[in-house]
Amino acid sequence: MTRKRWFRWLIPGLNIKRWLALFSVGVGLLIIGISLMFNYQWLAVVEDFVLQYSFELTGFYNYNILIGTGLFLLAFGILLMLIGTSKVIKTIIRAVLPVQNSKVSDMIFQNIRLEKGPKIVVIGGGTGLSNLLRGLKVHTNNLTAIVTVADDGGSSGRLREDYQMIAPGDLRNCLVALAEQEGVMEDIFKFRFDGNGDLAGHSFGNLFITALTQVHGGDVEEALKAASNLLRVRGRVIPSSTELIKLVAELADGSIIEGESNIPTANSPIKRVYSQPANPKPEGAALQAIDEADAIILGPGSLYTSIIPNLLTDKIAEHLRASKANKIYICNVMTQPGETDGYSVADHVDALLRHGGEGIVDTVLVNESELTPAIIENYRKVGSTPVEIDSDRLKAKHIRTVKANLVDNKDTAIHNHDRLGKVIMDIVYAMKSDMEPKVLEYYLQRDDH
Question: Coiled coil: which residue ranges (predicted)?
């Protein structure tokens, strides 16, 4: 083990040094106890042997050699204790949880660090939410994803109709995103059956969650706990409600569109969305997570069909407004055809406030990376344009705007999950230290972002 890895055991706050000290005290008491049991005079034999050896070497009794020998034996004993303890820990860990990385201490320190991370609640759905979770899970284990369940299209819609259960699709994506090892498991959960049979079009992950729900007597929360244990999920995935919800949109022209999958196809701006039944019953664990959170994040994702549906669940918006945590909205980089055509950042926030009330957002994170003409043109072909950043309108609402480089600017305008996660953590820690807004903005515009 290198010197650096040895010194890591001395990092403050890991709760390791106190137990090593306790172990050392125990060894010392053990030695004293054995000495008292067998008469400490037997130690004099060792002392006489060392002094006799020093006399033969130097011609006189050198008590400094006696002290040096004692220090050597003490250091050697401590070394043996550390090596033995390390080997025992590694053997136990490999027996309980086989690891591919031989540096078990790295895993221990990472787990300790993650367990001490801030409590963060993320609210939304779709690919935006799962992308954010991938970026956050490397910084804290104390993650709670509150996920919309109003999806009624594709595999999720069919399972919802056949088994009268909430849509599993977004829940599945969040479970995979928070899994310790994504890789093959991610491929399996995303796998869709082809052909013309009954399974055609179904996602394996959706079927897996449906099966677990049936095994647990229809209890979705228990099914998600079981799935989390199987996937070794970092954090929790909670549906905003377990009721069957139909999402309905009232358009600017007065027409009504029913069904989450139908709303983006409307040819008129959305005035508001609401659920049937109204004020569906929330999951208690979701409300508790909001109350205990250090930070709450809305988005990124489809404004009207992924984020706002969670605010329609009874008491969620109320608990959001009452929370003392920092409440951050991550705005999409591009507008979404059929939902946010022509929307600026402030327009997105206005929609959130109309549905959730004042006080559900205090900070907005936006991308300031300049997109290439090729990317903009590709999005323009499908009716999407860059979201205009109008910070002055947000400032008038006493909402701060934080700008950071969040997009790789390669092929798409999708947030880079690693960069997004790091910036979010910087915001959370900066807010906890009460940085002034201008200092915070400078802090986030460093080159490493």
Answer: none
